[in-house]
Amino acid sequence: MTTALLIVDMQNVFTSMTTICLPNILRLSTHFKTHSLPRIFTQHGHTQAELTPPFKNQLVRKWGPSGSIAKGSKDWELMPDISPLATENENPIIHKNTYDAFINTNLAALLEEKGTERVVVCGVMTDCCCDTTARSAFNRGFETWLVKDACGTASKKQHETGLNGFGYAFGEVLETEEVVKRLS
């Protein structure tokens, strides 16, 4: 079964949420690279037009322009440990402006083009972009795993809530070690 790793929104703005998950994301990325399995990165951001009233983007409406990530800003950039991984071997970077990496992007087509049947999701935020994208992958027919020690968010409660909701109805919630073991 062709499996792709989806590394979600590992951007500077979220650095404080990645203390625990970053080493596991790096391990997963290395494993997928070593086994010639696809790695896809997402990068969340909003254009200047989206950050200017009237706000048409729902996230900008919710968080306001000052609480949204501006494309091209330092906060928008991928973290220093992640950026080289995204650019090596021309790994795809999906640019998105909502929690769901499938909406208004070519992610589904890219996964289908690679013959992907299973998606392994990691990154930030567990309960927002990771969970929403993982649920969307499931709803599109992909077997989906959410990697609990390779996801981060603002609080332990939010992290556990996102994992529990996903695990109940959508897919498996696994630790990095189990993912590596199953894919070896």
Written description of the protein model:
This protein is α/β, with parallel strands linked by helices. It is 37% helix and 20% strand. It has a 6-stranded parallel beta sheet, with helices on both faces. Helix 5 packs parallel to helix 6. The longest helix has 14 residues. The radius of gyration is 15 Å and the shape is globular. It starts with a strand and ends with a helix. The mean pLDDT is 97.
Uncertain segments = none
Q: What letter string, H or E per element, gives the SSE order?
A: EHEHHEHEHEHEH
Which bin fits the share of residues in helices? Answer: 25-40%
In DSSP terms (H or I, runs of 4 or more residues), the helix count works out at 7
Biggest sheet, spatial arrangement of strands: 3-2-1-4-5-6
- Major sheet attributes: 6 strands, parallel
Shape: globular
* Tally of DSSP β-strands: 6
What is the typical, i.e. mean, pLDDT? 97
Percent strand: 15-25%
Write a brief structural summary.
This protein has 7 helices and 6 strands; from the N terminus they run βαβααβαβαβαβα.
Q: Which helices and strands appear, and what pairs or packs with what?
A:
Layout: E1 3-8, H1 21-34, E2 39-44, H2 58-63, H3 83-87, E3 93-96, H4 107-113, E4 118-124, H5 126-139, E5 143-152, H6 156-169, E6 172-174, H7 176-183
Parallel strand pairs: 1-2, 1-4, 2-3, 4-5, 5-6
Give a quick set of tags describing it:
184 residues; alpha/beta; 6-stranded parallel β-sheet; 6 strands; 37% helix
